[in-house]
Design a protein that fits this description.
Blueprint: E1 2-13, E2 16-27, E3 31-35, H1 42-49, E4 57-62, E5 65-70, E6 77-79, H2 82-89, E7 92-95, H3 107-117, H4 123-136, H5 152-164, E8 170-174, H6 182-197, E9 202-205, H7 209-215, E10 218-223, E11 226-231, H8 233-238, H9 243-249
Parallel strand pairs: 3-9, 3-10, 7-8, 8-9
Antiparallel strand pairs: 1-2, 1-4, 4-5, 5-6, 10-11
Helix pairs in contact: 3-4, 3-5, 4-5, 5-6
Length: about 260
Amino acid sequence: MKVLQATDIQKSFGKNPVLRGISFDISQGEVLSIIGPSGSGKSTLLRCLTLLERIDSGYIAYEDLVMAKNDAASGKAVYSPAPVLQQIRRKFGLVFQNFNLFPHFSVLRNITEAPIHVAGKSRDEAEKEAMALLDKVGLAEKANAYPCELSGGQQQRVAIARALAMHPDILFFDEPTSALDPELTGEILKVIRNLAEEKMTMIIVTHEMAFARDVSDRVIFMDEGVIVEQGDPKQVIENPQSERTKAFLSRFSQR
């Protein structure tokens, strides 16, 4: 089953085209990593897929819910009504590179806030699920701590637990380790690897090439707003066909 379908996505900022005809889909249980140089459009693509930016034209749908499609007359993207977009927002979770936790909330409240106030769960149910998620990411003992009392790696694990608390169909990661010291990166990659083993549908924008190769079902290489190459992770990362992909990957040592 296709969880997400994106077709011919176009997005410009002013006169600067950032996404130029991006098309792909992702099936339930699949892990897709998106790699490429800074400025290639990776993060903008994620922002468009999660309603943080609006596309100029193209088609985006989550299962049978259409987010945006082109108007027949103008050729420009028209978004579905607010109630449909609200349903779509419930289908995905987004983990930012800079954590984005509420600093004045405890870890437990950061995780339970949306399930209580958006999903309508009781506080007891939300807190029970939150504690199970904290245990899953190895932070059960930090439930009453505040973000300022946690390391970057711990904050990112809380952010992952917060995203999972809404039971999304698909989880997006926007360079989840880029703000972390190298020794903390392993904590996050372990959590994502465990989610992959549980067949969580994920799209991961990452600069961790070895991780992308080992955890993904498919890798997309983007440059200058287009998909240059995609396919089997080992083939794309270890034996790329495009010269642009080869040039990019030559800067990384694969271990």
